[in-house]
Design a protein that fits this description.
heterotrimer, A alpha+beta, B alpha/beta, C alpha/beta, A: alpha+beta, OB fold (Dihydrolipoamide Acetyltransferase, E2P), six-stranded antiparallel sheet, three-stranded antiparallel sheet, 9 strands, globular, C: Aspartate Aminotransferase, domain 2, Aspartate Aminotransferase, domain 1, 2 domains, seven-stranded mixed sheet, 15 helices, 11% strand
């Protein structure tokens, strides 16, 4: 049973979204996703200033057995990528919702169509 | 049937275990109208003895003429130990090393190969091979497009002094993904920075430099590399591995060094064998390692902390990344890598350097002997390595045909790919050509050119 | 099992300054090794490359010992699904390495290559016959290379007809990774369709997926699930009616060789893996050969060079003969030595032998599947006939005993068998794809079954033994996370 914090929002492609005090959003991958990938060996984070459309792949997370794209939940401009992941990709495994955040984004509009914790949990159950 | 061990009793026991009456029943899911009626076009089986007679007759038909062609495939002495060990069943009939614990031999060998080729090219890291030197240029171009952070044009400059077949392979392979190859003409037999003036200030993703180039001429690699880097372009060096024993390797070209080096391992212990199998090599800087296609072997430890080897960075490859892989390459040229690694181990740094120096010397002797003949002159007065272009007083094709009838393979006719060079012939002599060989060629050519120039 | 147990040093660790295999040098050791003055100083290498300085015996011993660390067909039963690890006849190697073939330069005059070209032409003809295609090109150097040629030809065909919108390639989700990777390399878009519970392509999903953008579909038959695509004629009609072409991935040709021909199933282009079906060596990762066969529609687009015949003379056909060719894919004519080995193999098999390949490969696979099912393993498609391979799923063992397919695979190594293919196709959980090939005896298969039964028993009584396997190789299970996180890709001397 994976961890799904109630105070975050989620996408069907296993990203989580946290709204920060300054209106920016923080994005990472969920506990379920990091478990499915296994030990992460490399993360490619985006550069500050990069413009993203909703659904664009902004990062690649690579384990021994998979390399997955991480998708932007909303359009916007990258404020910063998590530089710590360069030397410590395993932070995503150990703290997927904390120190393992992947990018912070200044959203162009309010994110729409995100799932609540309960809805994401139901989505995981349905995926099977 | 020659290799199936089944006896009639085996077959009946096995069918009983399956619960089928005859082997035909096992194909009952296949629509009957699809079943083959016969294979009339396939001849009757030959036993090994008769197959041997057939193959020996065919091989003897072609004989072993005296060879003076290079043009991307070079005849060097191959120590007997290279293929005696390479054709051991444990190398020959092993699979790709996906199950690492069952393949430590192959994996360690590839690690040693990666080490040798990286050092030879002056780069930091290598993959486990590409199909050949031509596809290596194609893959290097695609890699440059992926790796270049700033350039968006996908324009790759390719001088015409690069092997014509390599240029064609690059075009056939990479234009499907949007890469645009632009030829830079080299009528003087080499690329000069002046020829690149029209590209100054343009968004160029990379330039390919071949050293020595297809004509055997040495390019001004430092000036071209510096021009490329100043212009924001990456440098792909396509190089001859034997030459690297005595020539400056791509990693040391210009101020910063080339970004990607590639070429063909064929000169390193791989026989000419009518064109293949050879093995492409691809090396680069560590910063680009994740953009490199193909397999890579890494050293690691096992559960008890003992040294071991495994395929690594596989997430880039087709079996994991599928549609987003760096390349679709799966099987590469593993057995040839084995041969090349054993060859390099036997020759060592000084042995390889002697092969290079001796080959260069032999080509110089060949050129001297042939240009003494009326009707033959050297095309390019430029430094060269182990290959040269001669201009003749009549079409090269005629000379080649005449010498072929005397058991000599005279060279490669350049008139199809380089009509501007006139009656041009690319010749090569390696350390395998003796004084007697060179004299035989010179005598035969002298005889041939005595005849009046025929209408073409 | 005569496998070396002790790890072997890196070759560089044997290096000593001044050591060498002097008998291999072209000039005497005591003569100076000078670079001619006509090579400019600024183009010369300053420091020698780091290559081993060792004696010839040290080289031979080192690499012989390395070879003894490998599993191979010559030493072990190797039931790798989708790889066709059949016996590589020694005669194929000896005859392909006859001096007349081995020392021939690829650009030598054709008049001096008629023997070699005759073999290549006849190989083209025989491959046409067994596949039911109209033309064969031999130059692609591996299966994936052949796939590239095939998809490129499909694109070229549509473009030549002005049908520029057709850029979608349909691929079943069970397909080998090279299929979608190839589609992308050709500038196409991949459209995946599902496979049903019986292992067949979902025909309704296919109908919904085809349209005016369909360039073609890539299929393997038998499929990567190890079963025959029973509705293949319907699939062919749906794709053809929508204006698309059918590509056949020949990785599983061994199952149907001599029984069914891809051309007769409606495929427009196929690639063959000569290093699978036609028994050329796997070589530790190649060289392969991915010859392509085409139907009439795609004949003009074949990659060059192709061998042609003018009267009784053979010659290479080039761009001039095939102006619409997708072009040259190899610096010379492809993996000639591999092609010769395939030719020799086909001559030794002959017509009768060709018919027997599919039969005995299928017999061996069905026998293994039946006995493993009786022993308590779960075939993924229990209602279907096995083709030349079949899938066992270890899902039950994973759930009940926490033993994965990987664990079973690693424990098999201790029993002296190379593991089957694991975790492919991706859609079957904890899968083992098992392909015995036709050259294995009943005793070899029985030995494998006994090992699998023993491992199943161990999974119940000593699970840790299985989970921490292998125990008897030179290395235990390797840390591939560390291999990817701490990249050590070239050896460096300790002082560096």
């Amino acid at each position: 049973m994976s961890n799904i914090p109630a105070d975050l929002k989620y996408t069907k492609s296993h990203e989580w979204v946290r709204t920060l005090a300054n209106g920016n959003i923080e994005v990472g991958i969920t506990d379920h996703a990091q478990g499915a990938l296994g030990d992460l060996v490399f993360v490619e984070v985006p550069e500050a200033g990069k413009a993203l459309k909703s659904g664009d792949s902004f990062a690649v997370v690579e384990s021994v057995k998979a390399a997955s794209d991480v998708y932007a939940p909303v359009a916007g401009a990258v404020v910063e990528g998590n530089g710590a992941l360069g030397s410590q990709p395993e932070l995503i495994n150990s703290e997927p919702y904390g120190a393992g955040w992947i990018m912070r984004l200044k959203p162009g509009s309010a994110p729409a169509g995100l799932l609540s914790a309960a809805e994401y949990e139901a989505h995981l159950a349905a995926e099977g | 049937m020659p290799f199936n061990p089944h006896t009639p009793k085996d077959v009946s026991d096995m069918l009983a275990a399956i619960g089928a009456k005859k082997i035909e029943d096992l194909f009952d899911e296949i629509p009957k109208e699809l079943r083959i009626k016969g294979l009339a076009g396939i001849p009757d089986a030959l036993n090994e003895m008769m197959t041997g007679k057939l193959m020996m007759a065919r091989a003897a038909q072609d004989g072993t003429p005296l060879n003076f062609i290079g043009a991307g495939a070079y005849e060097h002495h191959i120590p007997a130990a290279v293929w005696a060990v390479t054709t051991r069943g444990e190398f020959y009939s092993a699979y790709t090393p996906y199950q690492a614990e069952a393949s430590q031999g192959t994996l360690q060998l590839i690690y040693e190969y990666q080490t040798m080729i990286s050092s030879l090219t002056g780069m930091e890291v290598s993959n486990a091979s590409m199909y050949d030197g031509g596809s290596a240029v194609a893959e290097a171009s695609l890699m440059a497009v992926r790796a270049h952070r700033k350039s968006k044009s996908q324009r790759i400059l390719v001088p015409t002094s690069v092997h014509p077949h390599y240029r064609k392979v690059a075009v056939s392979t990479a234009t499907g993904q949007g890469v645009r190859f632009e030829e830079v003409p080299c009528p003087k037999g080499y690329l000069s920075v002046a020829d690149l003036a029209m590209y100054q200030g343009e968004d160029i993703t990379a330039i390919v430099i071949q050293q020595p180039n297809f004509f055997g001429v040495l390019e001004d690699v430092d000036a071209i590399t510096n021009w490329a880097h100043a212009n924001g372009a990456m440098v792909i060096g396509s190089v001859n591995p034997t030459s690297l024993a005595i020539l400056k390797p791509p990693g040391e070209w210009g101020t910063k060094g080339a970004d990607i080096a590639c070429g063909d391992c064929q000169p390193l212990g791989v026989p000419l064998s009518s064109g293949g199998p050879y093995a492409g090599f691809l090396t680069t800087r560590m910063e680009y390692v994740r953009q490199m296609p193909g397999r890579i072997v890494g050293r690691t430890v096992d559960a008890e902390g003992k040294q071991g080897f495994a395929l690594t960075l596989q997430a880039r490859e087709q079996h994991i990344r599928r549609g987003k892989a760096t390349s679709n390459i799966c099987t590469n040229q593993g057995l040839l890598v084995t041969a090349a690694t054993i060859y390099l181990s036997l020759l060592g740094p000084e042995g390889l350097s002697r092969v290079a120096n001796e080959s260069h010397r032999r080509t110089n002797e060949l050129v001297a002997a042939l240009t003494r003949i009326k009707g033959v002159k050297l095309a390019f007065e430029r430094p060269r390595f182990h290959e040269a272009v001669l201009q003749l007083d009549r079409p090269a094709a005629q000379v080649i045909a005449e010498l072929a009838s005397r058991g000599i393979v005279a060279g490669f006719d350049l008139s199809n790919d380089y009509p501007e060079l006139g009656h041009a012939l690319l010749v090569c002599a390696t350390e395998t050509r003796t004084d007697a060989d060179i004299k035989a060629y010179a005598d035969a050519l002298t005889e041939t050119l005595k005849a009046a120039v025929r209408a073409a | 099992m005569a496998m070396l147990k002790h790890p072997e040093k890196i070759i560089f660790e044997y290096s000593r300054p001044g050591r060498g295999a002097f008998g291999q040098w072209p000039t005497e050791r005591d003569t100076p090794n000078e670079t001619a003055s006509d090579i400019p100083e600024n183009l010369r290498r300053k420091k020698p490359a780091m290559l081993p300085e060792v004696s010839e015996l040290e080289v031979v011993r080192h690499f012989t010992k390395l070879s003894q660390l490998n599993f191979s067909i010559d030493t072990h039963f190797y039931p790798l699904g989708s790889c066709t690890m059949k016996y590589n006849p020694k005669a194929c190697n000896s005859f392909a390495m006859l001096p007349g073939f081995l020392n021939r330069h690829p650009l030598a005059p054709e008049s001096l290559g008629q023997g070699f070209l005759a073999c290549m032409f006849e190989l083209q003809e025989m491959l046409k016959e067994v596949t039911g295609m109209q033309g064969v090109a031999l130059s692609p150097m591996a299966g994936a290379h052949g796939e590239f040629a095939g998809v490129a030809m499909i694109r070229a065909y549509h473009r030549a007809r002005g049908d520029l919108a057709r850029n979608e390639i349909i691929v079943p989700i069970a397909a080998h990774g090279t299929n979608p990777a190839t589609a992308t390399m050709c500038g196409c878009v991949v459209r995946e369709i599902p496979v049903n519970d019986e292992g067949d392509v979902d025909v309704d999903a296919l109908r919904a997926a085809v349209g005016p953008n369909t360039a073609g579909i890539m299929l393997t038959n038998p499929s990567t699930c190890g079963v025959f695509e029973r509705r293949i004629k319907e699939v062919a009609k749906i794709v053809h009616d929508a204006g698309g072409l059918l590509y056949y991935d020949g990785a599983n040709l061994n199952a149907i060789l001599g029984k069914v021909r891809p051309g007769d199933m409606g495929f427009d282009v196929i690639h063959m893996n000569l290093h699978k079906t036609f028994s050329t060596p796997h070589g530790g990762g190649g060289p392969g050969a991915g010859a392509v066969g085409v139907g009439a529609r795609l004949l003009p687009f074949m990659p060059i060079p192709v061998v042609g015949k003018d009267g009784d003379k053979y010659r290479w056909l080039s761009e001039r003969d095939l102006p619409q060719s997708i072009g040259r894919l190899s610096a010379f004519m492809g993996n000639a030595g591999v092609l010769l080995r395939a030719y020799i193999y086909m001559r030794m098999l002959g017509r009768e032998g060709m018919h027997r390949v599919g039969e005995y490969a299928t017999l061996n696979a069905n026998y293994l599947m039946a006995r493993l099912a009786k022993a308590g393993f779960d075939p993924a498609y229990p209602t279907r006939r096995a083709s030349h391979e079949f899938i066992i799923t270890a899902k039950k063992q994973k759930n009940e005993l926490d033993i994965s397919a990987m664990d079973i695979a690693k424990r098999l190594l201790d029993y002296g068998f190379h593991a089957p293919t694991t975790y492919f196709p991706l859609l079957v959980p904890e899968c083992l794809l098992i392909e015995p090939t036709e050259t294995e005896s009943k005793e070899a298969l029985d030995g494998f079954i006994d090992a699998m039964v023993a491992i199943l028993e161990e999974a119940r009584t000593q699970p840790d033994m299985v989970r921490s396997a292998p125990h008897t190789m030179t290395v235990r299970r390797l840390d591939d996370v560390r291999a990817a996180r701490q990249l050590d890709l070239t050896w460096k001397p300790a002082s560096a």
